[in-house]
Design brief:
The chain is 58% helix and 12% strand. The protein is an alpha+beta fold and 209 residues long. Keywords: Membrane, Transmembrane, Transmembrane helix.
């Protein structure tokens, strides 16, 4: 990991992630990492509410349907998101440089996320003909019908979560590979060697000045 002053990024002509020449610059807001306890709490929520959705035998509530567990899962994830944003620290880098590979990667991530959100809408539309008749009527479902019902009920949640994760990875700060550090600095997790050398030269020049 490398800690840098964000203003120095405007003087570096090398992409921190790919080591290629910088072709454009933009302002990037780096976000702090979520606290460890929050990550543990979210993990517990995912296991407690997500596992019963996938494994019917693990359902511990009176309602055998997966919808209630999906609501618990989304509620827990939303609460974790709110807590993270309350505790969030942000650092602005006014002119962070990116190479040609970065926007292409971002476009692929955003395109895949949009596809997941469209599939979420489509799978929600299938909920009406496949799930509601079974809930209204009292007929027992065949094993195949039960599998189809389970897939239709779970699919919207899966697609929505995958889409949200992909959009999170498509942020410029994530593509740059950095997070907000303490005292207004930026911490890069795995920068290329050429970028580290350029930052070291800027640091030595600043010390001499």
């Amino acid at each position: 990991m490398v800690t840098i002053v964000p203003q120095w990024s405007g003087s570096v002509a090398i992409c921190a992630r790919h080591g290629l020449p910088v072709t454009f610059r933009t302002e990037v807001w780096f976000r702090s990492r979520p606290p460890v306890l929050l990550c543990v709490a979210v993990f517990v929520v995912v296991i407690a509410a997500g596992l019963p959705v996938v494994v019917p035998a693990a359902r511990y509530l009176d309602d055998p349907d997966p919808e209630l567990y999906l609501l618990l899962l989304f509620g827990g994830l939303f609460a974790g998101w709110l807590v993270h944003n309350v505790m969030l620290r942000q650092v602005s880098a006014p002119a962070w440089g990116f190479c040609d590979v970065c926007p292409a990667l971002r476009s692929r991530l955003v395109g895949t996320a949009v596809t997941c959100f469209l599939l979420t809408v489509c799978s929600c539309a299938l909920y009406v003909p496949f799930v509601l008749p079974e809930q209204v009527g009292g007929d027992e479902l065949s094993p195949f019908q039960a599998i189809v019902r389970w897939a239709v009920a779970v699919a919207p949640g899966v697609f929505a979560i995958v889409g949200a994760v992909l959009l999170a990875f498509a942020r410029w700060s994530v593509l740059a590979g950095g997070v907000a550090g303490k005292d207004g600095t930026v911490v890069l997790r795995r920068p290329v060697l050429e970028f580290v050398r350029a930052i070291a030269e800027l640091g030595r020049a600043a010390e001499k000045a």
